[in-house]
Amino acid sequence: MTIVRNSEMRRELTVGEVAERSGVAVSTLHFYEAKGLIRSNRSRGNQRRYPRSVLRRVAVIKVAQRTGIPLSEIQEALTVLPDDRPLTVQDWARLSESWREQLNTRIASLMALRDHLTSCIGCGCLSLRECPLRNPHDVLSMEGAGPRLMDATEEDGQP
């Protein structure tokens, strides 16, 4: 059994150590830092040194990304949390609750797309009257770029 002294436990981590322990590439850590998601200190030799708390922060970033939360929203959410300590269960509960409705909306939209997509796959024309993905005469182009028909805000309540 190895006894770890407090001074060793508080030692900051190199970028390589953080990359190895978090499973995130060094370049990704540099990117996160440039975007303000994590922070580092500089050693006398101008090398990055990260507090141990960055490991949990990186884990939260990866989980949020996996659920489809944009980095800008992750960064905004993390700004209200202290970066001098690991994120707590309560911190995560606040973060995840703030993203819950957005995720529920995305899930509902994907389920609607899945349910309607199977009826169109065979025809290939996407212009039949019954097709929930149709856009006759390109009328939706006036609303801007991108897909519009699967939005939950459609007037008739049907995607």
UniProtKB/TrEMBL annotation:
Domain HTH merR-type residues, every copy: 12-80
Q: Which Pfam families match?
A: MerR, MerR-DNA-bind
Record keywords: 2Fe-2S, DNA-binding, Iron, Iron-sulfur, Metal-binding, Transcription, Transcription regulation
One GO term (biological process)? response to oxidative stress
KW Transcription regulation (keyword) present: yes
Q: Which GO terms describe its molecular function?
A: 2 iron, 2 sulfur cluster binding; DNA binding; DNA-binding transcription factor activity; metal ion binding
**PROSITE patterns in the cross-refs:** HTH_MERR_1 (PS00552), HTH_MERR_2 (PS50937)
The answer to keyword Iron-sulfur applying to this record is yes
Which SUPFAM superfamilies does the entry link to? Putative DNA-binding domain (SSF46955)
Superkingdom to which the source organism belongs? Bacteria
Q: Cross-referenced NCBIfam families, in alphabetical order?
A: SoxR
The protein's name: MerR family transcriptional regulator
What is the protein's species of origin? Ensifer adhaerens (Sinorhizobium morelense)
